[in-house]
Specification:
InterPro entries: RA_dom (IPR000159), Ras-like_GEF (IPR008937), Ras-like_Gua-exchang_fac_N (IPR000651), Ras_G-nucl-exch_fac_CS (IPR019804), Ras_GEF_dom_sf (IPR023578), RASGEF_cat_dom (IPR001895), RASGEF_cat_dom_sf (IPR036964), Ubiquitin-like_domsf (IPR029071)
Strand content: 5-15%
Strand order of the largest sheet: 1-2-3-5-4
Keywords: Guanine-nucleotide releasing factor
Distance between the termini: 86 Å
GO biological process, one term: Ras protein signal transduction
Oligomer: single chain
Organism: Cinclus mexicanus (American dipper)
Protein name: RGL1 protein
Number of strands: 10
Length: about 725
């Protein structure tokens, strides 16, 4: 006999039970069966029977995937999901449940209510007195616990009492004595108890507080920095990034958790994510300090340092370290470095082109589509896929890449974590936590898991790195005194003023200006940024905004309740950087750890919320990402675009920096009082004071749209400009 089969999926609607709603998909398998013997006598070619002699059989199975439910139902579904053919449910639940429940609550339900072999009311087990029923339930519980320990063992790290781990151990001793599971839990408990309480950032942290006694912060010595080879610097930055990224606990990135980090009681929330942000900002500030920290440098010497950092960024690209790569590019595009136009004129043409190509990776076009596609393309590849439009750069790239390949060790991939944080925050903003009846919206968790799964995949790839720490460089890196934004700007002005007194010849200057303008503008016109004195920022620690401000990494909001997404100051219209390939690049807030993004960027084509875009985290779900076949998600609301009666706006408080905003989901039913209350609540202010505030849409630098008290925000707003709003106290 020969067999062939074809599988199709059909939407089976919904099934509603007490406390749960399920999506149903019908899986239809067509099996063709034919007897090979005598096929030729019946007119078949080879061993194939003609169609009229083929036997067709159909098998239909039902796939049930829980869509929403009470916590009790979601926990119970851990035991039944495999039978319902929802094979990814356990992984999705374990990766996202911290958004709506605690480990203690889940463990108590799992063990006390559904795992008690004597009194369990588990629906599939009718007769718990039978040996067979006990074995079924024991196997289901063991399967869930094994997955929990494999995927999320950090959930049980609760020093000094370890209550959940002790409860689990007690359960295993009573119900599964002398099992491998019991031994495993005992070993995990010993491991946790024996480990010293460590700061999450460990020895890789670059903050000054980690210096040993006797060490002092110092401004970078150009000669000492130059003594480190480019590939050594890139390898050491990658080593530090890998150590921190591998420690990131995925649920720390969930929007509902990460967006709460600025509340006073949450100062220790998501420490693994904060550690990666600290490292990112340390790299950015190190770049700025090495370029500006020494006043005595000549123009050519400063240009050589810029060239060195571009080479280091290229080495990071070869190592597939997108975190430090972006940190370096962000620093070079920061206000204080970008404005050194005379210094940039001394950077060689080949290196400028290399810098341009590296910057293009992080272009904000189509919701950072280029970096998303590249990241997923190289997530599991052995080596970087380098391509350069410049022949000389292409030769250098291939030569360096060949050296890596000759070592015979695969490279992992370190992502820029801010992309995932932004995606998860936008998902959290766009989708409701609960649906009708007060049921937990588990479809939201499935969408979040698509992003979490990418983080986990990249963390696994980092195991491929084989890097050895260079303590000399690490100690040098830790000792660097970071310049404040005010210091950087002052030193930048001094360096440029000194350069103006010893400027290049008019002919070479004209050539260089044309080159720089082509790099950043794509035109032959170079308009230097306007310069204004720095203003005092109303937000502690920030330098305020100058008209040529494009600073990425150093927007420090020490005392503000920063948003899910923290934007950098936007360049003025005269600032060429705003029109550059990267613009106000996305970065991190150095204290609060918020993601910075271009105020004008729009999540349109290629957005994670556009099911038609197949290149990013929100593309059509597949079986691998835990979604049900045949169930197409709706188009979710996004920033800067009204779609299907909803959109996302950004609301900042009057008197605070414009970069400190909150993302608010509004629909065509929302009026001013509702939106004002939600905005105040997100800014951790008293929502009852809504009547004291007015909502204003920012149209341009000198125009505003003030909404009447009961206006419909969705229909009243100007949809042709950025969806940026201000809450202002009424006069």
């Amino acid at each position: 006999f020969s067999f062939s089969w074809q599988t199709t999926f059909q939407d089976g609607g919904e099934e509603v039970e007490d406390g749960a709603v399920y999506n149903v998909t019908l899986k239809k398998v067509q099996i063709q069966q034919a007897a090979n013997k005598g096929a030729r006598w019946l007119g078949g070619e080879g061993d194939q029977l003609p169609p009229e002699h083929t036997v067709r059989q159909y098998e239909t199975s039902k796939i049930r995937a829980i869509k929403a439910g009470t916590l009790e139902k979601l926990v119970e579904n851990l035991l039944t999901a495999f039978g319902d053919a929802d094979f990814s449910y356990i992984s999705i639940f374990l990766a996202t449940y911290r958004a709506f429940a605690s480990p203690t609550a889940v463990l108590e339900l799992l063990l006390d209510r559904f795992g008690n072999l004597e009194t369990s009311s588990h629906g599939e087990v009718e007769n718990l007195n039978s040996l067979e029923s006990e074995m079924v339930l024991r196997a289901e519980i063991a399967s869930v616990l094994r997955a929990w320990l494999d995927q999320c063992s950090e959930d049980f790290r609760e020093p000094p009492d370890y209550m959940c781990l002790l409860k689990l151990l007690d359960y295993l001793k009573n119900n599964m004595p002398n099992s491998d599971m019991e031994s495993r839990v005992q070993n995990l408990l010993k491991q946790f108890q024996n480990q010293e309480v460590e700061a999450v950032d460990g020895f890789c942290s670059t903050s000054s507080s980690d210096l040993v006694d006797g060490e002092e912060l110092e401004i970078s010595n150009p000669e000492e920095f130059s003594s480190f080879q480019d590939h050594v610097v890139a390898e050491q930055l990658t080593y530090m990034d890998v150590m921190l990224f591998r420690r990131v606990v995925p649920y720390h990135c969930l929007g509902s958790i990460w967006s709460q980090r600025d509340k006073k009681e949450n100062k220790n929330l998501a420490p693994t994510v904060r550690a990666t942000i600290t490292q990112f900002n340390a790299v950015t500030k190190c770049v700025i300090s090495t370029i500006l920290g020494t006043r005595e440098l000549k123009i050519q010497q400063r240009a050589k340092i810029i060239e060195k950092w571009i080479h280091i960024a290229h080495e990071c690209r070869i190592l597939k370290n997108f975190s430090s790569l972006r940190a370096i590019i962000s620093a070079l595009q920061s206000n204080s470095i970008y404005r050194l136009k005379t210094t940039w004129m001394c950077v060689s043409k080949d290196i400028l082109l290399m810098y341009e190509e590296l910057s293009e990776i992080f272009s904000d076009h189509d919701n950072y589509l280029t970096s998303r596609e590249l990241l997923m393309k190289e997530a599991t590849s052995k080596f970087a896929n380098l391509d350069s439009s410049e022949k000389e750069n292409q030769k250098k790239s291939q030569k360096r890449l060949q050296l890596q390949k000759n070592k015979g060790v695969m490279q992992g991939t370190v992502p820029y974590l801010g992309t995932f944080l932004t995606d998860l925050i936008m998902l959290d903003t766009a989708l409701q936590d609960y649906v009708e009846g007060g049921l937990i919206n588990f479809e939201k968790r499935r969408r979040e898991f698509e992003v979490i799964a990418q983080i986990k995949l990249l963390q696994s790839s980092c195991n491929s790195y084989c890097l050895i720490p260079d303590q000399k460089f690490i100690q040098w890196f830790r000792r660097q005194r970071h310049l404040t934004e005010e210091e950087s700007y002052k030193l930048s002005r001094e360096a440029e003023a000194a350069a103006d007194t010893n400027i290049l010849s008019p002919k070479s200057q004209k050539s260089m200006v044309k080159r720089i303008s082509t790099l950043f503008l794509g035109t032959d016109v170079f308009t230097p940024p306007k310069e204004q004195p720095l203003k005092s920022s109303p937000v502690g620690g920030s330098s305020g905004e100058s008209t040529d401000s494009a600073s990425v990494s150093s927007c420090e909001f020490n005392h503000s309740e920063t948003e899910d997404v923290c934007m950098t100051p936007v360049s003025s219209p005269e600032d060429p950087l705003k029109k550059s390939s990267v613009g106000s690049d996305k970065g991190y807030d150095s204290d609060k750890g918020s993601v910075s993004s271009d105020k004008g960027s729009s999540s349109s084509k290629g957005s994670i919320f556009d099911p038609g875009s197949g290149s990013d985290s929100g593309s059509n779900p597949t079986r691998d990402s835990g979604s049900v076949p045949g169930s197409a998600p709706r188009v979710l609301p996004v920033y800067n675009r009204q779609s299907e009666g909803s959109c996302i706006i950004r609301v900042s408080m009057d008197g605070l920096h414009a970069s400190v905003y909150k993302s608010i989901l509004i629909t065509n039913q929302d009026r001013i009082p509702d939106v004002t209350q939600r905005a105040l609540l997100k800014h951790n202010l008293e929502p009852d004071a809504a009547e004291d505030y007015e909502l204003v849409q920012v149209i341009s630098e000198d125009k505003e749209l003030v909404f009447p008290r009961d206006a419909n925000v969705f229909y009243g707003m100007n949809s042709h400009v950025n969806f940026d709003f201000i809450l202002r106290k009424k006069a």
